[in-house]
Fold this sequence. Notes:
By secondary structure, this protein is mainly alpha-helical. Among the domains are: about 190-285, K Homology domain, type 1 (Ribosomal Protein S8, Chain: A, domain 1, 2-Layer Sandwich); about 300-425, Hypothetical protein af1432; about 425-500, GMP Synthetase, Chain A, domain 3. It is built from 14 helices and 8 strands. It has helices spanning about 5-135, 140-190, 210-215, 220-230, 250-265, 270-295, 305-310, 325-340, 345-355, 370-380, 385-390, 405-415, 425-440, 470-485; strands spanning about 200-205, 230-235, 240-245, 320, 320-325, 445-450, 455-460, 495-500. The strands form 3 sheets. A 3-stranded antiparallel β-sheet has the order 1-3-2, covered by helices on one side. Strand 6 (about 445-450) and strand 7 (about 455-460) form a beta hairpin. Helix 2 (about 140-190) packs across helix 14 (about 470-485) and helix 4 (about 220-230) packs parallel to helix 6. The longest helix has about 130 residues, at about 5-135. It is flat.
Amino acid sequence: MNPLNLVIGLLALIVGVAAGYLFQRYQAEQAAKARQEKADNILKVASEQARLIESQARESATKIVQASEMEIKERRLELNRETDRLDKRRTELDNRIEKLEQREQTINKRQSQVDRRGNEIDKLHEEQVKKLEFIAQMTQDDARKDLFAAVEKEARGDMARIIRQVEAEAREEGEKRARKLIADAIQRVASEHVAEVTRAVVTLPNEEMKGRIVGRNGRNIKAFEQAAGVDVIVDDTPDSVTVSCFDSVRREIGRRALAKLILDGRIHPAHIEKIVEDETKAVEKIINESGEQAAFDANITGLHPEVLRMMGRLKFRTSYGQNQLAHAVEVSKLAGILAAEIGANVEWSKQGGFLHDIGKAMDHNQEGTHASLGAEFCKRYGVHPVVVNAIASHHHEVDQDTVEAVIAEAADAISGARPGARREDLEAYIKRIRTLEEMSMSFEGVQQAFAIQAGREVRILVKPDTIDDLASARLARDIAKKIEETMQYPGQIRVTVIRETRATEYAK
Length: 508
């Protein structure tokens, strides 16, 4: 390569680099100059805006100061007016206080005069009372006692007269209404008369079967009694044995099992246990079906299955010979009819009548009356509180809160008191008659008392010189109330008080 060309190329390169550098520097200076001009413009605009804002702020501050001064002036004026008003009010209160003090002084003076006058009147009253006591020869306390005695005598006479009148009217109207309701209810519920008292008697085909029932050394009868929980009585009664047990369900199981064993002919301990177990299941099935059938007959739905099962146990229980399950169905129907007649809740009344004696299905291991046990049991299984109260109160162990409870009690009494419903043993009958007469004789002024109509009525002869006509009505009411509170009886007992006055003279 030519050196000259190389030098020229180098120089050209240097010149180009220098020119580029100078051009870049020139551009940088121009950019810096432009930025400076822009900054100067921005500073200028900012200064103008600052001057404008400062001017506006001064104007606003001036306006605020002026407004504040005006508000202060107005508040000062208002404060002055309020001060003047308070001063005027204080002056009025001072004047009023002065007037009140003057009035109080006047009242005190008048009170003193009144007190003096009162003392004078008291003295005059005491003098007049002393004069009256001296004239009447009687103290004030004696006069008060005589006045109270006279008023009490007159009031008692009026009270007895009013009571007798109201009772006569209520009895006349109530008897008509009650007779109609009861007659309609009994006629619409056709029930059978009570049958003979159920006895667990098993008939034998021949006398030889008694020996097979007893077994060698009594092993068969012992095994049967142990498995069934009953007593088997083998006596001289021809062709029959008796199954005895306080639990009617176990007695029924024993009767059915013994009848089946006699029919089968295989009587030995192992077979006895199997038969008793089978009959226990069969009776439980009968109990469930009986409870459901009774609810169906009474047209009652919605009861818990356990409640129906417990009701089914009543099929094997009786009261004075009356089957308790049939009695429950009958009471339910009567309660429904009575509730419909008087406008009460028919469904609750029927349930109360159906379940009122469910406590009698409980065994002896549960303590309490059948009413309380039945109410607690039904409450546990979701029976309505109105029905629970009807169950618990049908013997007045608790208060009757609803009319449905009264209807259930009335239906129970109708079912138990209707002709042919129940049997009553002679001892209980004589005891009730004697109790009625003794209770009537315990009242003052009673001369004789006689219980008649099988204890449905008690007639009382009173001493005419001790009991007057008005007191006779009060005595009948008191005796009836005591009978209601102390005795348990179906239906109602009529109390009749007889006062007889005799005048005897002799012609000579």
